[in-house]
Every structure is written in C-alpha cells, then in structure tokens.
Design goal:
Length: 542
C-alpha cells in the first residue's frame, strides 16, 4: 500500500488525475452551454428534426442490430442490398460503440447523443492521462476545443463522427505515451485502434502508418514483416466487409479513375488525368473557400480550418526538425522545464506533428482526387478534431499559433455559421413530434414484420427521395421513417427508378410524397393506402 502511495506522489498522479477530470468536463459543458444559449436543454435534442438523412440509416440499423442481430429487411439504394445480411453502403463496424451501448442500456432517440458525449469525455480524459500536459497546454486545448464548434454539433447528432474523433484522440495520446516510454503492449494497442479505424473508413489507413513506422524503427526487418502482415489482414478484412456486407450506393462512394486510367489508357493519359483532376478540383476547392467568406458555405469553412491547421503542423514540424538537427535537445528540455514544466519531449512532438501533417496532406489529395467536395469536406472534421489536441502541445511563448487557429475557428464556425442545415442543433418542435407519433401509430397498426427467411423484401419500405407535385420537385419528409417498427429495412430510391419499375418493385411498402406523381400511380394500380398526411403517403404493394 505504501509503495502505491509513493508511486502516486512521486509521479504526481493526483495532479494528472485532477487535470484529466477537469478537462473531461469540457464535452458536457460545451453541450450544455450551446443548448442553453438557445434556451434549450440536451434532452430536447430530437433527431427527426434534423435534415441529415444519413442519421436515419445509422439509427434504424443500430436499432435492428440491438433487437435482432441485423436488420430483418434490406437497407439499400434503388433496392440494392448487400450480398450477405442487410446493411447499407457503410461498414457496420463504424457504429460498433453504439451497438454496445444499445445492448447494455437500450436504444432510443437520445442514445446516440448520450453515447457520443460519453465517448468524447472518455477520450479527453484518456488523452490528458496519457500525455500529462502542462496547465498552459490545457488552457490552449480548452480554448481551441470550445471554439471548434463541430465537436458540439456532432455530439448532439446521430452521426458517428464523434466515434472517429474519440478513437483518434486516444490513438494520438497513446502514441505520445509510447514515444515517451516504449512498451510492446502500447504498440499493439496502436495497431488495434488504427486497424479498427481502417475497417470503419478506408482513408484511416493513413493513421495505421504511424505504428508501422514505430515498429519498423524499433525492430527493423521483424517490424517490417510484421507490419506488412498486419496491413494485409486489415485491408483483407475491409475488402471482405465492403464486398459482402455493403449495399451498392447510387454512385461510387469515391472515384478511382485517376488510378485506373493508367492501366486502361496508358501512362500519358494517366498523368494527364491525374494533374487535370487536381487542377479542376483545386479550382472548385478555392471557389468553396471564397463562398465560405462571402456567405458562410460550410464546406469552404472546413477547407479554411483544414488548410490553416495543415500550415501550422508543417511549420512546427520543420521548426522542431531543425532544432533536432542543431542538437538543441538539451537546451529545449531545460527551457521547457523552466517555462512550463513540459513533459512531452521535442522528438516525440516532432514524430506526432510530422505524422499528422503527412495525414493532412494525404487526405487533401484524397479529397481532390476521389471525393465530391461538399460531401467529402465532412471527412476533414475528424482530422481537425485530433489536430486541436496535437497543436495544443506545441511549445509556444506568445501563443501565436493557438490565437491564429482560434480566430479561424471563431470566424468560420461561430460568426459565419449561419446555415441551419450544417450548424443548427435539431431541437424538438410540436409539429414534428406530433407527425412522428402519428406515423409511429400508423406503422405499428399496419406494417407486419415477417420473421421467415430474413432478411427479406417483405420487411422493406421504399423511401422515395423526391417527387413532382404540380410541376415542382418536392423532397420527401423522410423523417417519418423514424417511426418504423424495429427491424424494418429502408431502401432509398430515386423517383425515376420508381416510375420505371413500379409494377416490378420487390419491396412490400412504399412511402412517397403526398399528391405527387408516384402517389397517383400507386392509387391507379390499386395499392392499399396505409396512412397519409399533408407531406407523405404510405402504400402496401402486396
């Protein structure tokens, strides 16, 4: 017992614990303050008010997994479905913390929000415990965390971004801890976390390269061979998940013609396509940034934050590399101890800063070459989220980098955050609550979950994305589908697909825009109307 007390006091674990607990309060405090400023509480967040339709798919799939092991009807697009089971286009690994939460505590509309807040709280606590930052570094981290408002927006949502944020924050905290005190089990944990991230989203392979570097540096050929084996297993598992468990999306989730052109049309055409894509996408990238300044376009705002953070990481990496080259390690350590009691060495900071800068550059090229800019911009938020933690550890005298980054965050993510679609937390309103309750009762009364030969199309409702009403395109109020009975699958379909295949569709139920073209066609074919309101109508086809 005395040995434990001595270890606790000598290492100042009590002080680290105090810091970790204090900083772990940030996620919930930021959420409370953000909601309070709008006269609301966290309990009033209501996912069916949100316009982010990916949340519906994530929420209902997790609900089905928690209750049945997998959805009893197919999730897909234009009635596509996975080769095995019934998941949508994204890896089910992406939401595994939510699944665990649902199995332990049940699953309702508040579950992903509470789980998100808890995950980020645990991640922040773990980072401080592993890294042992100084009080000044904690101050910088607190400032940047509060100004980076996407933390709050995604905690109070049904999107799994916070899962990625949290895992990466722990990943870098563990990496710093490993570099300060190399232990084999820490390296194994780094591989495990990074491997999980790759199974969730393939571009996370950039982060798996850090433990690869550390293992090769430590064990040379043994580390290289082992790393190649780990990479092969992880990539093989991702390929299997993508092939068997993912439904085909409307269009490719990312574009690969910049690679395939080299093989199909030759080296010269490949080079032309590669640089041509960079040029035209780069121009569009700059256009988004200009529109962020002019009227607050969210994608452009994310680009601004990303590039400023990338610049800071590259600048500091070069500065620290030069210090290492000049053999100023001892002087740097003495200055750290005299000025702020820093415990993270310059070599450790250099490895982490340089690797994160490398990941930023790699993801920037991936965005320009492989993604649509508007949708792809949201993937940058994860990189910036962990960047907040890494930049807070940079040794600084006048806090120029923190002030610059904080000013960018404040301008784009608070002052210019005017678009409710991207920034407004969805709070309950009487109209939406009443509508979802009406449809929940109608679905419970009329929809039948068939438990034979599951998954099957008897347990699928088509969500017609939009339809023409009096020569005007109207987007469906898909939020009513939160009221579907547990286990049902959802197939999001475009109107032209429905019009062309209406009599040959496989799904038993169809939800479409009331008074639209497809509504009329369903009535003419004699489909049984289940329920209707001013926005939507649902038919049973057979």
């Amino acid at each position: 017992m005395n040995q434990f007390k001595d270890w606790w006091k000598e290492d100042k674990r009590y002080l680290t614990m105090l810091k970790a607990v204090l900083l772990a309060l940030l996620p919930i405090l930021c959420c409370l303050i953000s909601c309070g400023m709008q006269g609301k509480s966290i309990g009033e967040v209501y996912l069916p008010v949100s316009e982010w339709n990916d949340e519906l798919f994530y929420f209902k799939q997790v609900e089905s997994i928690v209750n049945f092991g997998y959805p009893q009807g197919f999730y897909g697009f234009n009635e596509s479905h996975a080769l095995k089971l019934s998941f949508a286009a994204w890896s089910p690994v992406l939401v595994f913390p939510w699944i665990l939460w649902g199995l332990l505590f049940g699953w309702n509309l508040m579950s992903p929000i509470i789980c998100n807040i808890l995950l980020l709280t645990v991640a922040v606590f773990a980072f401080v415990w592993l890294v042992k930052p100084t009080w000044k570094q904690l101050g910088v981290l607190t400032l940047l965390f509060c100004l980076y408002t996407p933390f709050v927006r995604y905690m109070l949502s049904g999107m799994p971004e916070i899962i990625c944020f949290s895992m990466l924050i722990v990943f870098y905290g563990l990496a710093i801890n490993y570099l300060e005190s190399e232990k084999g089990y820490k390296l194994a944990l780094l591989f495990a976390i990074a491997g999980l991230l790759v199974l969730m989203r393939p571009y996370m392979l950039l982060f798996l390269l850090l433990p690869v570097y550390l293992w090769v540096k430590k064990s040379k050929w043994k580390g290289l061979i082992g790393s190649v084996a780990v990479l092969g297993v992880v990539l093989g598992m991702y390929a299997m998940i993508k092939h068997y468990l993912a439904a085909e999306y409307f269009a490719p989730l990312f574009f690969t013609d910049w690679i395939t052109t080299f093989f199909t049309e030759g080296f010269g055409a490949g080079i032309h396509n590669f640089f041509g894509t960079l040029y035209y996408m780069g121009k569009d990238f700059l256009r988004h940034m200009r529109q962020a300044i002019e009227f607050g376009r969210a994608s452009g705002a994310y680009f601004w934050g990303y590039l400023v953070m990338l610049g800071i990481l590259v600048w500091q990496s070069v500065a620290d590399w030069r210090k290492v080259r000049r053999d100023k390690l001892q002087a740097e350590k003495q200055a750290d101890n005299a000025s702020q009691g820093g415990s993270v060495g310059i070599k450790t900071r250099l490895v982490v800063e340089a690797h994160l800068a490398f990941c930023f550059v790699g993801m920037l090229f991936a965005l320009l070459l492989m993604y649509k800019l508007t949708e792809g911009s949201k993937h940058l938020l994860t990189f910036m989220g962990v960047g907040v933690f890494v930049i807070s550890l940079m040794r600084t005298r006048f806090y120029k980098k923190a002030v610059l980054l904080g000013a960018v965050f404040a301008f784009f993510y608070t002052y210019m955050a005017v678009d409710p679609y991207d920034y407004q937390v969805p709070f309950a309103n009487e109209e939406k609550v009443t509508q979802v309750e009406y449809w929940s009762e109608a679905f419970d009364a009329h929809l039948e979950l068939v438990d034979e030969n599951v998954p099957n199309f008897d347990n699928v409702i088509i969500w017609v994305f939009s339809d023409m009403v009096s020569e005007e395109s109207v987007t469906a109020k898909w939020q009513i589908l939160y009221g579907l009975p547990k286990g049902f699958g959802i197939s999001c379909c475009m109107p032209d697909y429905i019009v062309e295949n209406l009599e040959n569709l496989q799904s038993r139920y169809i939800a479409t825009v009331a008074e639209g073209t497809i509504d009329g066609m369903c009535a003419e074919l004699g489909y049984r109307e289940i329920a209707r309101d001013a926005d939507m109508v649902v038919y049973e086809r057979y």
